[in-house]
Design goal:
With 380 residues, this protein is an alpha/beta fold. The chain contains eleven helices and 20 strands. The longest helix has 18 residues.
């Protein structure tokens, strides 16, 4: 995500949405490029600010930091203008600008500072403010950024709205998360595995019902007790040379790994435990695992757990994951106890009830049976 906002930038939103974290990332990136950065803090002392930034993976130790917690607002503005006019700063951050511009005289002073000092000197300025406080900065800013956070079943979703941007597209939002040691992370910055290209492999357990397994195809299995069938499918695909990532949500990973080996194959089996955090962090962990394993096939056994935790947001989560996996040429097999809207984004859907299986694919509808001897398979 390009955060190279130039000129005067106003970042606003309610407490806790990530305003300071976003400014920390921008300051860190500017310091990394060799720019001088002045950070004026009205809430944190220097040590706390550097420590909090470090926990997010940002190094602000080379920034000039003023902690002006108990200093009068007029004195703050005077000192900023006096110092900046005689220096070569590339970026000045004030957190928070709201308390500085409470009086009419201070507001006028801020406007004069922007037009007579910052802009003529080409110094970029970031002012952080609370959402409730509309400041003169909102009107004169080159870039206007609003941050927002909502909760879905206890899981947070953060959005950055770009309302105005000098010389760039505006009027859109992007989702982000704040992750320890990684800081502010946007959806388009998640790790991307290598593209697999077109491929197909045969899985004795299911291919007589659904045809060869193809890279980029999505296979939905709905019903109960499908783990043995999926474990056998994983074994078959691995024997045919595919790397399989088996994500189990509701059972012991070691038992599933042993089951795959019993069927003569191997898979990277991991237990997944969705937690009530920002769902983007959950997606990030998945793509990191996918990158590290270089999987050709992803089996997600028991996706109901995501829907129980994230509610309707889980469908959007899976839509985004599936869209990306399609482009990468990775085959996806997902099992749920009941259809949760995933059929509409699947190439093949298999519904199993009392060992009767109905298969929907581009070739039409087929009726099959789930058999367990000599090994789990769909018999049509």
């Amino acid at each position: 995500m390009e955060l190279d906002f130039r000129g005067v930038t106003a970042i606003f939103g309610r407490p806790g949405v990530g305003k300071t974290s976003l400014a920390m990332r921008i300051a860190h990136e500017r310091l990394s490029k060799g720019d001088r950065v002045l950070w004026v803090s009205l809430y944190e002392d220097r040590e706390a600010l550097i420590q909090n930034a470090s926990s997010l993976g940002y190094d602000l130790s080379k920034a000039e930091i003023w902690d002006m917690i108990f200093v009068k607002t007029d004195a703050i503005l005077n000192q900023i203008v006096s110092t900046v006019s005689q220096s070569d700063y590339g970026l000045v951050v004030v957190d928070s600008i709201s308390s500085i511009v409470e009086g009419s005289q201070s507001r006028e002073y801020l406007i004069n500072a922007v037009y007579r000092v910052f802009r003529p000197a080409g110094i970029d300025f970031i002012g952080i403010s609370e959402e409730e406080a509309v400041t003169p900065l909102d009107y004169i800013a080159d870039n206007l950024i609003r941050l927002e956070m909502k909760f879905f079943n206890g899981a947070a979703e953060r959005r950055m709205y770009v309302l105005k941007a000098r010389g760039r597209r505006a009027g859109y939002y992007v989702e982000f998360d704040i992750i320890e040691k990684r800081g502010v992370v946007f959806l388009d910055e998640l790790p991307r595995p290598q593209t697999k290209g077109g491929w197909e492999k045969y899985a004795e357990a299911i291919s007589r019902a659904v045809g060869p397994v193809r890279g980029g195809n999505i296979y939905l299995f709905a019903g109960w007790g499908l783990t043995p069938l999926l474990a056998k499918t994983a074994a078959d695909l691995s024997k045919d040379g595919a790397k399989v990532l088996y994500r189990i949500f509701e059972r012991d990973a070691s038992l599933v790994a042993a089951l795959v080996e019993r069927f003569g194959g191997r898979a990277e089996v991991q237990r997944v435990e969705p937690k009530p955090v920002n769902y983007l962090a959950h997606v990030a962990e998945f793509f990191e695992t996918l990158t590290n394993t270089s999987a050709d096939v992803v089996i997600s056994d028991g996706l109901d757990a995501e829907f129980h935790l994230y509610g309707d947001k889980a469908l959007e989560l899976n839509r985004r994951e599936i869209k990306e996996l399609r482009k990468l040429g990775i085959a996806v097999m997902a099992s749920v106890h009941r259809d949760r809207g995933l059929r509409h984004i699947s190439d093949v859907a298999v519904y199993v009830r009392n060992r009767n299986a109905v298969v929907y694919s581009a070739q039409g509808r087929r009726e099959c049976r789930l058999e367990y001897e000599p090994a789990p398979h769909l018999h049509c």
